[in-house]
Design goal:
197 residues; mainly beta; seven-stranded antiparallel β-sheet; five-stranded antiparallel β-sheet
């Protein structure tokens, strides 16, 4: 009796460009885009800047500042503004974001002095985000040159946000001397956010 031998033939498989379609590949990413290059481009461009076009009078309690103009909004699927809530900048995608806000303060009435405090809150919780607080004192300067002094507050901080978190800019005045009438100047109230990781 003869014995037969069989030997399996091994052939190297080389993938070609047309072998696989995007439906056959899982692209799991929290940043929009089917490819890594798309995701990186969207990450770099995920930024939003909002501004208020009218003056905002300060009270002695923290109040939300409505930002009625969107100057810049790249990739709103990551950072969104003015979706029916102009006092908020919303984070659609979780990540680390850099937040910045700035405003000019009109001086109070002569002989009055006010301390201005500002902060950013998240999800309408009545507490300042760490690093978001600003403070300035504005006062009348007629005793020196006949002009009223104006001051500015400018704050930048970074923080991790979860998906669906939103931030709100707030400010108040503290009556240090007299009963000052203080407002933030129209067009100078700006808040922006950009994703950094």
């Amino acid at each position: 009796y003869g014995r037969g031998t069989s030997q399996a033939a091994f052939v190297a498989v080389v993938a070609a460009a047309a072998d696989y379609t995007s439906t056959l590949i899982t692209n799991a990413s929290s940043v929009a885009g089917a490819f890594v290059t798309n995701a990186l481009n969207n990450l770099r461009a995920a930024a939003c800047q909002a501004r208020r076009t009218t003056a905002f009078s300060l009270s002695t309690a923290f109040a939300d500042i409505s930002l009625d103009t969107t100057d810049l909004e790249k990739v709103p699927t990551i950072i969104d503004h003015l979706a029916g809530t102009p006092d908020r900048i919303s984070f659609v995608v979780a990540g680390t974001y850099e937040v910045h806000y700035h405003f000019d303060i009109n001086a109070p009435d002569p002989t009055d002095t006010a301390e201005i405090q500002s902060r950013v809150t998240v999800n309408d919780v009545a507490a300042a985000l760490a690093g978001s607080e600003g403070q300035s004192t504005t006062f009348d300067d007629t005793s020196i040159d006949g002009d009223q002094m104006t001051t500015q507050i400018s704050v930048t901080f970074s923080r991790d946000f979860a998906a669906a978190d939103f931030i709100t800019l707030q400010a108040l005045k503290v009556n240090v001397g007299g009963t000052p009438v203080v407002s933030l100047r129209a067009g100078s109230i700006v808040m922006s956010a950009k994703r950094i990781t």
